[in-house]
Model the fold of this input.
Amino acid sequence: MRPDLVAKYRNQRVPRYTSYPPSPQFSAAVTAADYRQWLGQLTAADTLSLYLHIPFCRSMCWYCGCHTSVVEHEAPIRRYQAALEAEIDAVAGALVPDPAMSKGGGLPPVTHIHFGGGTPTLLPPDAFLSLMERLARRFGRPAATAEIAVEIDPRTLTAAMAAALGQGGVTRASLGVQSFDDRVQRAINRVQPYAATAEAVARLRQAGVGGINLDLIYGLPHQTVDSCVQSVVQALELAPDRLSIFGYAHMPSLKAHQGRIETAALPGATQRTEQAAAMAAVLEAAGYVAIGLDHYARADDVMALAYAAGRLKRNFQGYTVDTATALLGFGASAIGRTRGGYIQNLVAVPAYLKAWENGGDGWAVAKGLALSDDDRLRADIIEQLMCRFAVDLEETCRRHGRPLKDILTPATERALATLATDDMIACDKTRVEVREEARHLVRSVAVLFDAYFDPESGRHSYAV
Done:
């Protein structure tokens, strides 16, 4: 990581590019009628990824950027479960079965399931198993090679829930850690002893959940290079298959609870860069492969293999091996994607529930975006940069049946020349490659191909 590039680009706000166009471009112009139409256009040649959002936690972590709320009792979760099951029925009912396919009722096969949150494991064990059974009944049993993943707060994982995850066929668990430093934990309102995380990992492995991911964050209040390195060392003691190392995005204007974090205690851009570099060095020394912007995996892990083969993908869960052609989102704030475009459900849980209860029309779509041919081309370019750090613009335009001049405009050429002068990228005719020492700034390269980008919006996180 080069200090001169950090100094130049650290104040640039750019999207995370877990989708293109980014979600701030979604609008109410896309309705439930559009979503039903797009669902009806899916065929047996498609594959499905299912995402279920569980927007509940036992307490609010002040760094959190997710759509979630605090619940203390089971009743709101049970009510939400019922709405989820109603949505599953409605969405599955909008698919058109292929009479030539008997397996799975003639519907596209399910190749990936992800429970996100919030804290999905706040679901009672029987509720989780009920949801898994509902998915299987309406969409067919997942493919034998399907990944079934669940995000977990180790502080609340019970032995009964771990057993239910194993019974439900979960193959991968992603455990939030953030930091093992006591002072940092107190500053973000997430006190989580190392022993609690170790116990959760042991319970999951005993239940047969083989894939273990750990999430760490740098740039948190009171973090230092030493404390970040120590958190990585402790995480490695648990022998995870993958680790995610995210940079904290402090945006209290969008997430009011982040305002409870002491701004003066946050590391600056240079310190953040040093923390990320130190954590990466420890992981790579331990044999983990650096993947994309913020993931690390064992060399024999399927994600490392996909990265090496150029098959890595990126979606709302970050880097993934999920290659499904359609993502169906269930729950409040959940986002889905089909060939036709993106849809997002109502964010507020009460509004989402109302859509499914008391005579509601049974659809909770709040907004979305219909994809144009230009959107699909730019999404391909940006995903290649984010996942491979390189793209051949001419070849990509050719695959999409579009002229190169639509992408490589004089303004874009000038911007690329500036990045090349900074030694941030290498350009060979129409091939753009992000230099290894600048990969942490890949979003600042991807943004050149974002037709919607507004540098004055203030809605995005800092590049560093």
In short: The two ends are 11 Å apart (CA to CA). The chain has 15 helices and 21 strands.
